[in-house]
């Protein structure tokens, strides 16, 4: 009897079968399925139309796959409800469940326990508590001067170049250097960690091709092995960084086992730059397309923090998130039964006209821009929200102050990922540099 490779089983059930189901549903007009393909093709206008159609259909819209919601209040309730969980529990009493359990991976994955993205209390509370202190508003503000210096150094490197790729040469590098320093990653590993994180980013998607799935799993395995080496390096030569502290807590108190330690550290590292890369790139594209808003920021620089939140609202780094129901109940007025999928469309909730006036308009002075749900809500609210806001504010303000003549060139290109939304390439002419003696001064607030 021929043994079926484990990879083939995983790919068939996690990607090929779901994609075929979604394709059939899309042909029948299913909103959830149409959203899948519009996101895959990066059809911005089509996505906005689907958001509006979902909102017009009610707070919780039934689909062939479960429910979908782009209603601000409903999305917030889904994200905060104790009647839902992240991921889907695997029922090993069924034949399919036993097969998937046999074929499961033996390396870290962001959507599988013990990842913070895939666990619930009490484990989630225990993992999160250990890393929360470094991401408080006070701790993040203490990093501002350090982030400013990193941004200034990167902008120095761009000076004099006739053409740059801002996505690759600036947006990607700033966040990875910042989070690497926080987690004790040596400078010579920064580019390597960025490469692995970029390779693993599609792991949040389903419906991948055979080749794409192989590439993602290879990146995840390589990242797993690198984390083992990095943790051992910090164990033998600890520093003052967060990762060294986590290793010490693990060794002294047993607060985390080895896999939990590696998973928590790995997710904080990858999440610490992946979404911020997208945030900054999305912002640059928006400013190019809305020059009046950039002009207003030059005249009123105190609006920069609010502008970052408006970018997060109108073009968030994360399109949507999924939850599954735990029990019979009611969420946002809809009756639910166990193990139903709820797709919470963060980008759609951010354009709910009941909350945001003229929601499709980019307005850096929008009074309630911070009411977006791009950082999720409830117990899974983004741990690094304050850091992402500060990095984007410093990084974007510094870019436009140093290169006031910056303009994008034709050829901007979106990343291939669906859940994570950002730019792979942003070719630009940056023009002459303009230096300021106040480059290390914080933005007035």
UniProtKB/TrEMBL annotation:
UniProt protein name: Cytochrome P450
For this protein, what is any one GO molecular function term? cholest-4-en-3-one 26-monooxygenase activity
Q: What is the lineage of its organism?
A: Bacteria, Bacillati, Actinomycetota, Actinomycetes, Micrococcales
Q: Which Gene3D superfamilies match?
A: Cytochrome P450
What keywords appear on the UniProt entry?
Heme, Iron, Metal-binding, Monooxygenase, Oxidoreductase
Coiled-coil annotation: which residues? none
Record-linked PANTHER family: BIOTIN BIOSYNTHESIS CYTOCHROME P450 (PTHR46696:SF4), P450, PUTATIVE (EUROFUNG)-RELATED (PTHR46696)
Which family does the record claim for this protein?
Belongs to the cytochrome P450 family.
The UniProt entry's GO biological process terms, in alphabetical order, are: cholesterol catabolic process
């Amino acid at each position: 009897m021929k043994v079926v490779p484990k990879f083939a089983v995983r790919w068939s059930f996690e990607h090929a079968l779901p994609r075929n189901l979604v394709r059939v549903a899309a042909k029948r007009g299913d909103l959830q399925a149409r959203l899948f393909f519009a996101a895959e093709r990066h059809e911005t206008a089509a996505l906005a139309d689907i958001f509006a159609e979902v909102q017009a259909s009610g707070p919780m819209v039934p689909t062939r796959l479960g429910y979908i919601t782009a209603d601000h209040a409903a999305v917030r309730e889904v994200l905060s409800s104790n009647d839902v969980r992240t991921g889907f529990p695997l029922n090993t009493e069924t034949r399919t469940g036993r097969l998937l359990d046999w074929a499961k991976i033996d390396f870290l994955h962001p959507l599988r326990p013990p990842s913070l993205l895939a666990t619930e209390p009490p484990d989630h509370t225990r993992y999160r508590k250990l890393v929360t202190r470094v991401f408080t508003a006070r701790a993040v503000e203490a990093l501002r001067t350090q982030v400013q210096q990193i941004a200034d150094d990167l902008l120095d490197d761009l000076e004099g170049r006739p053409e740059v790729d801002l996505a690759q040469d600036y947006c990607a590098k700033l966040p990875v250097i910042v989070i690497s320093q926080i987690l004790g990653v040596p400078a010579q590993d920064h580019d390597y960690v960025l490469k692995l994180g970029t390779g693993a980013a599609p792991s949040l998607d389903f419906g991948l091709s055979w080749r794409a799935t192989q590439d993602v799993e290879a990146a995840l395995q390589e990242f797993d092995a690198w984390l083992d080496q990095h943790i051992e390096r910090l164990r033998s030569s600890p520093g003052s960084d967060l990762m060294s502290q986590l290793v010490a807590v693990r060794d002294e108190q047993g607060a985390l086992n080895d896999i939990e330690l590696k998973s928590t550290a790995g997710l904080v590292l990858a999440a610490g730059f992946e979404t911020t890369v997208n945030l900054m790139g999305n912002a640059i594209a928006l400013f190019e397309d809305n020059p009046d808003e950039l002009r207003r920021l030059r005249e009123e620089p105190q609006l920069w923090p609010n502008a970052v939140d408006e970018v997060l609202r109108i073009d968030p780094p994360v399109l949507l998130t999924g939850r599954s129901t735990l029990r019979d109940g009611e969420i946002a007025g809809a009756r639910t039964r166990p193990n139903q999928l709820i797709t919470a469309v963060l980008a759609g909730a951010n354009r709910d006209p009941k909350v945001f006036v003229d929601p499709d308009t980019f307005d850096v002075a929008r009074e309630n821009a911070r009411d977006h749900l791009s950082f999720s809500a409830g117990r899974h609210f983004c741990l690094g929200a304050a850091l992402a806001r500060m990095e984007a504010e410093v990084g974007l303000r510094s870019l436009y102050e140093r290169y006031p003549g910056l303009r994008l060139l034709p050829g901007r290109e979106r990343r291939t990922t669906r859940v994570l939304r950002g730019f792979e390439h942003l070719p630009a002419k940056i023009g002459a540099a303009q230096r300021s003696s106040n480059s290390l001064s914080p933005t007035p607030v």
